[in-house]
Amino acid sequence: MSDQLFSQLKPKALDEMTAEAYQRRRDGDLAQAFATPVSRVAWRVPRMPLFLITGTVAAGLGIAAALVVSGGVQPAAPKPGVAVAQPSTSPALDARSFLLAAAETAAGEPAGSGRYWYTRQTTAQRVNVAPDEYIKRITSLKMELDRRSQKADSTTLDKEALLKELELPYDAYTTSTTDTWRAVRKGDTGGSVRRAAKITFGSPADEAAWKASGSPILSRDRPGMRKDDIEPVLSIGNPGITLENIADLPTDKEALKRRLTASYDSAPAGGGGLATHLWQSAVDLLTAPTTPGTRAALYQMLADQPGIDEKGEAADVTGRTGTALSTTGADDVRYDLIIDPRTAELLQYDVVLAGKTAPTLRVVIEQAGWTDRLGERPRG
Amino acid sequence: MDDPRQRFTGLYDRHYRNVLGYALLRADGGTAEDVTSETFLVAWRRLDKVPDPPLPWLLGVARNLLAKQRTSRDRRQALVDRILALGGTLDHVGRDIAEQVVNRENALAALASLSDMDAEAMVLATWYGMPPEQAAVVMGCSTRTYNVRLHRARQRLEAALRQETAARSPEKGLFGRLEKA
């Protein structure tokens, strides 16, 4: 959960700045390099060896450490949730048989291909503070500290207290839909189109409270289109999986589980433990261009997991019906999925934090598939 | 590879934006661009020594150059502050993986509580999708040390998230009125 939380903090400005600088600096940088002798260390002699030595030593350490880890030595970091045994009940019979049936369905779906992997996803989340008010306050706090010539860095600004103070006294939600085209081939440019966010309220009373407080703007998210040719991260918990190699993932459930478990073992995961890692990985991979064989293996793997309940038929927010599944990680975070039994496609998933009944996050996968043209949706 | 120029151009085209993006987390535009140019100059001179995958090595070189910049100019700006200054506040990313997310403002507050090293570990894991042994190359530390930093960062973010949501009032039909987009 914290990974997804953090990944969204990447400033959009970064991609724009780097794309612009790349265009501007490319010719000059290449010319400068080609004018520099390769064999001999040229100007700025004293600086060069230092980086090179550091870089080489670091690289050596990395390789050595990787060998140690794969040799079976436990990583130093304790992994919360690993020691906490999941209730060892086998999956409820209904969930297991549903997942096994989904595996068969997935295996029978046609394997697609194309130049771009397209998805349309709608995400809903709660609005905690009015953005303009927050920016105004944080700016004036920072200016105040600067005036008193104190070091105004992240530790001197109590943003958490400010957020608490500014928290909206009513329930409002922002919902936004994004179409994404991810290029499979290196060098191809992908892109995304983001539509304007919609605001909804928990109840008419919440809406009235918003109006009474002067109807502040609740979302500064702007619609827009952007190009993106940096390789997308498909599954944060499984950094080795890319659009280029995702079709090579195992089609055998044991091999697939070993692969996903290896990712988990090589890095400390969040508080949910291995079960949550496998579940989150399955969600990531079910929305990515995995082969029918890998999707079948994913469902078979989940069928063997304990603690998954079948909750009967359910409709997603767009009205499509499917079968609801639910599981709770070692950190008490609950994950609910709705899967279409006819196609074994994931329709929607919710994240419900401990002690809550309503989801904190809801993602609806409205469409996913292959297309050959940027800006065009798959047929059907 | 037969032609070093071709190989270098490929390296530059594939990784320039990633290296500059990383440098921008540590320095202002002009400095970051100069450091990135110099990083690739180092790569050109040592083309035969650039390992595969090259990105961790390139970021490691950039990181060392940036560290030098900081001590000479004494204009150190914390990573976390750079992220906020670059518009992380209430900004939104286009990638849909990034949209599987809640409560940006809380995340920013949690980010503010991370140390620089721990935040960098998260950046490499989540924005660059880097496996631990590669991220350790960038940070010039052991995989084990890197994993400790990453683990600490994740725990802090999760604790901040839990705390925040626990303090919240009971919800009323959160998504009941969510319409078809």
UniProtKB/TrEMBL annotation, chain A:
It comes from the Bacteria. The keyword Transmembrane helix applies. The keyword Membrane applies. Keywords: Membrane, Transmembrane, Transmembrane helix. The chain crosses the membrane at residues 50-69. This is CU044_5270 family protein. It comes from Microbispora oryzae. The lineage of its organism: Bacteria, Bacillati, Actinomycetota, Actinomycetes, Streptosporangiales.
From TrEMBL, chain B:
Residues 105-157 form the RNA polymerase sigma factor 70 region 4 type domain. The keyword Hydrolase does not apply. Signal peptide: none annotated. The keyword Transcription regulation applies. Belongs to the sigma-70 factor family. ECF subfamily. One of its GO terms (molecular function) is DNA binding. One of its GO terms (biological process) is DNA-templated transcription initiation. It comes from Microbispora oryzae. This is Sigma-70 family RNA polymerase sigma factor. Residues 11-75 form the RNA polymerase sigma-70 region domain. Keywords: Sigma factor, Transcription, Transcription regulation. InterPro entries: RNA_pol_sigma-70-like, RNA_pol_sigma-70_dom, RNA_pol_sigma70_r2, RNA_pol_sigma70_r4_t2, RNA_pol_sigma_r2, RNA_pol_sigma_r3/r4-like, WH-like_DNA-bd_sf.
